[in-house]
């Protein structure tokens, strides 16, 4: 058996709670944990020097690649949910020719990624997506690692996206050019659900047999937002199931 250390981290465009922008600081936080797989949300990849989100900073970085390089995680896939540019202090323009920055989710892996699948959810208020990577472990096992970021408008938005995510995960069991369903050892679902454990969005995922790993591997009270963990709030999730 291979123990796989997986981290899910909403990096907020690499801008901390002190409002300082630093890709290196995010890398240092992750490096201390020595992960094999990292699932990132709210990550940016700029194709020119610009400010992508109103809370971000002016930069020309491909943040997923920079973090993958600093962590020696050789395999990296980025799935933008939108292209964006901040046109003023309070306004953004999305999915236009002037928007040279991608904003979305990324998965970094120490082990080879054999196959990648993406899904963009039906838009209610915000465009959100999911990224599935089939990863080959050293013992020959293959696991799907699914990274996602559900909407921040509570209630129906997360629930609808969770149902679409469930169908996406179910589709991963179908045969592909890489392997058949019998060759996959399990599924790991990571992400910022913008949800509390009792929300309908989480219950949808658990109905597919996914288990919340916080019960066996988590530390502390289980609150990841706000980042200081001092106030009970929302939680990021790492759910897993054997095939």
Describe this entry's structure for a reader.
- This protein is of the alpha+beta class.
- The chain has 5 helices and 13 strands.
- It has a 6-stranded mixed sheet.
- The model has no long low-confidence stretch (mean pLDDT 89).
Enumerate the spans where pLDDT stays under 50 for 5 or more consecutive residues: none
Radius of gyration, Cα only, in angstroms? 17 Å
Shape category: globular
Sheet-strand content, in percent, reads 35-45%
Rounded mean pLDDT score? 89
- List the secondary-structure elements in sequence, H or E: EHEEEHEEEEEEHEHEHE
Query: Percent range for helical residues?
Result: 10-25%
Q: What's the total count of β strands? A: 13
Secondary-structure-based class equals alpha+beta
Query: Within the largest sheet, what's the order of strands?
Result: 8-9-10-11-13-12
The largest sheet is: 6 strands, mixed
**Count of helical regions:** 5
Distance between the termini: 15 Å
Summarize the structure.
With 243 residues, the chain is α+β, with helices and mostly antiparallel strands.
Topology:
Elements: E1 6-10, H1 23-33, E2 37-46, E3 50-51, E4 58-59, H2 63-70, E5 75-86, E6 92-94, E7 101-109, E8 113-120, E9 129-136, E10 142-149, H3 156-171, E11 184-195, H4 200-206, E12 211-212, H5 214-217, E13 235-242
Parallel strand pairs: 1-2, 10-11
Antiparallel strand pairs: 2-7, 3-4, 5-6, 5-7, 8-9, 9-10, 11-13, 12-13
